[in-house]
Amino acid sequence: MKVQDLHLFKQRALQWAGSFDTCCCLDSNDYPDAYGAFDFLIAAGIDKSITHHSGNAFEGLKSFYDEHQDWMFGLLSYDLKNEIEALNSANTDELGFPDLFFFIPQYLFVIANGEIKVLIGNKEDILDQINMLVLNDETVRIRPEITSRISKDAYIKTVKQLQQHILKGDLYEVNFCQEFFAHHASIDPLGIYRELNKISPTPFSGFFKIKDCYILSASPERFICKRQKRLISQPIKGTAKRSIDPIEDESIKVSLQQDEKERAENVMIVDLVRNDLTKSAVKGSVRVEELFGIYGFRQVYQMISTVSAELAAEVHIVDVLKNAFPMGSMTGAPKVKAMELIEQYESSKRGAYSGSFGYITPEGDFDFNVVIRSILYNAESRYLSFQVGGAITYAAVAELEYQECLLKAEAIMQTLGH
C-alpha cells in the first residue's frame, strides 16, 4: 500500500506506537543505504519478551530466538561486556535500563520504497487506527537543568592520564566519554524525539520505549547487520563540524578526508572490527569495502569505513552479535584493556549508551545501530542522561577533544532548549 504523505503517516504511526507500553521505531530518514532493507519500521506491543542481566544474557537470547524464530526487536546494553570478558561495572547508574531486552511485537509494519507492508497484525485495523489519529505535534517544553558529570578541567586531566597509558604501551586508542544529566526532568519523550529527529536526521535514528525507559536516538552509526550470509559493520571515527558556506563546507570535507590523526584513529578501529568479524566469518572472507569514506549529516561530516565478511555456517546469529560486542568504535584498541580503563576513568555507567538496538527477522537477518547522539530517559525516576565522547590517541589534543564532545552534544542540547 502506498500513501500520499509519508511524512505525516510516519508521525501518526509513531504517535500510535507510543501509546503502547513497549515499542520500537527505526527510521533511516531516507538516507541512501546499500545494506538497508527498510526505510522505516515500527513494532508495537508485546507478544513475548525476554529480559536479562549481564551473566547469561546472550545464551538466553539464543534460546529465545531458537524457540520462536520470529521478528524481534531489542536492546543490547554496553555492560553485557561483563559476561563476554572478565570485566565489571561499578560506576553510577541512575537510569536502570535492562542489560538485554528483546520482544516479539503484537504489531509490526515496515516502509520500503514508499510502500507500507503490515507484517504482524490486521492490516486494515492498524492502518485505519493510524490514519484516524489527530496528530499531537505540540511538545510541552520544560527545560531540564543539564549538569556535566565531570568538569572541563577534569576531562582534560583524564585525557592526559589516558595518554600516559598509551605512552607506556598499555593501548593505542581509547574511547573516553562523559555524561550530561538532569534530575527531576519532566519531558515529553515522543515530542522530544520528533524534535531531535527534525534537528538531526540520521540514518540509524530510533525511538525505543520499554515501559518507563526511553531511548531517543539520532545515531549516525551502524553496529552490524546481516544480509543472508553477509555481515557488514560500519564503524565511525572522525568528526568535523559543517559550515553553511558551500566553499568552506567542501574544504572541511576534504580536510577531514586528509587528516592523518583522524585516519589513524579510523584505521585502528577498522583493524579491531576486522578481528571481531573474523570470529564469525568464513576463513579469508573478511574485507574492507570502504576505508575513510566521508559522509555528510546535518551538523557534521563523519569518517566511516565499511568492513564485510561471509558468515561461517556453524556460527549462530546471536554469537555474531556477541563476538563483535561492544563495538570497537566505542571501546578502543586493544579492546579489553580499553574497556578496563573506561571503567576506571569514566564517572558513570554507560548502560544503554554505546550499546545497540535493532531487529532480527524470522530468517535470521538483522540490523543494529550504535546508541550514540541519544537521550536516555527514565520517566519514573525522571532522570535524563546523554553521553558524548571520542577517541583518545597519543596525538590527541585534550582541548580539541573536549570541543568535539560539545559538537556531538549540540543537537541534543538544542533539542532540550539549551
UniProtKB/TrEMBL annotation:
Biological process according to GO: L-tryptophan biosynthetic process
Pfam families, alphabetized: Anth_synt_I_N, Chorismate_bind
Residues of the Anthranilate synthase component I N-terminal domain: 72-115
UniProt GO MF annotations: 4-amino-4-deoxychorismate synthase activity
Domain Chorismate-utilising enzyme C-terminal residue range list: 152-408
InterPro entries: ADC_synthase (IPR005801), Anth_synth_I-like (IPR019999), Anth_synth_I_N (IPR006805), Chorismate_C (IPR015890)
PANTHER family associated with the record: AMINOBENZOATE/ANTHRANILATE SYNTHASE, AMINODEOXYCHORISMATE SYNTHASE COMPONENT 1
Name under which the protein is recorded: Anthranilate synthase component I family protein
Species in which this protein is naturally found: Pedobacter frigoris
